[in-house]
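Task: encode each sequence below as structure tokens.

Item 1
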Amino acid sequence: MAHSAASAQSPFNPDIHRIGRVLCFAAHPDDIDFGAAGTIAAWTAAGIHVSYCIMTDGDAGGFDPAQRAEIIALRAAEQRRAAELVGVTDIHYLHERDGYLEPTHAVMKGVVKLIREVRPDVVLAMHPERNWNRLQKSHPDHLAVGEAVTRAVYPAVENPFAYPELAEEGLAAYKLPWLWLYAGPEERENHFEDVTDHVDAKLDAIHVHVSQHPDVAAMEAAVRNGMHMSAQRAGFAEGRSAEAFHVVAVNGPGTIAGF
């Protein structure tokens, strides 16, 4: 599996904590590929089961007016192919409208439902805090993903009395161990994954989303540079590539129960 490095603030120790199942949330098709596809490729190569949940259909994306009628089907097909390139075949959609996503109770209930179904060791989601250094990372839908997932993770997922109809359907409350957030402010990042061996897979996945990239060369250069910068901040050797996360321990040996 990919080499990990955590700053002194990160609660996750890859030598101690084991991951078997991951559920990833994103606002649009291609968000996960930009934010975490290298780490996901490393996880699936190590036998970890990874699922995706895309909250919107990406219907406001793209640049070609002629594609409007088919953009939802086109982006779903792109996401399916991109996911397969990093070992993921389990993809869910909440079918919210692109550009209109909010952390409503309807959205949070959908998140709680899926987490209780999958029962992952790690929920990976976009960060709820705005990145002022690169505002493009902080599309309002991205922030809404982070807020909805964070609210769902605690307390609703582990509270048997939250959305009681889910428990009545047989979806029991579940204590999630880890929340990993991506695409957030640099100052929040406390954990880095060395994805040097999976850069090509990540870029191949991003390239699949051809409807979204008017300047492919500039996009690839920016992605490569971002991974190199993350590796430098992690203290990895010269020439390595990394993805950065804000890792939060939700439930562990020292967690005090409470709603």
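Item 2
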Amino acid sequence: MSKSITQDMAYRQSLMKYAEKYGVSRASRKYNKGRSYIYFWKKRWNGTPESLACQSRRPHSHPNQHTEAELKLIRDMRRRNPRIGMVELWHRLRQRGYTRRPESLFRVMRRLGLFPLEEKKPVYSPKPYQQMTYPGQRVQVDVKVVPRRCIADPELRLYQYTAIDEFTRLRFLAAYPEQSTYSSADFLKKLLDNLE
């Protein structure tokens, strides 16, 4: 028995003893529990801590469970048609007298382990970084909107174009009032002129 379960049982036992000695109302106020909670456990309590353990909530009977004939039909159909989808399988079972809903079929198939195991995805391993060997071999270009709080004129709107050479880590900046093909082409011309 786990530690938390034994602590719960000990707590309920002290509650029951207090309720026997001083009454349910006083125990309810002291332990901050409802009277119905105390009466519930009082009905079960026979003086031993084991009687205060939580009991299984599993139903005693399940009249609507799948019959053996239905389970055999599902297994046989799945064995003969391993690749068809759930709805198609359910439809074919319905043609053979199966009366349950697709949700019930899904639960039973999952319980019986009739779904194919998912293929394990390969572990991602990043490619090693290719080190540049000469200036201008690879240049990263980026465009960002300049925040309005960084511009003195509240009406002005600027776009910052940035180019970074991966070998030398040198940076080239330019600002334009609009982000357009003209601005991009002009930035690239200036960048190439600067590299030469």
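Check on item 2: The radius of gyration is 37 Å. The mean pLDDT is 90.
End of task.
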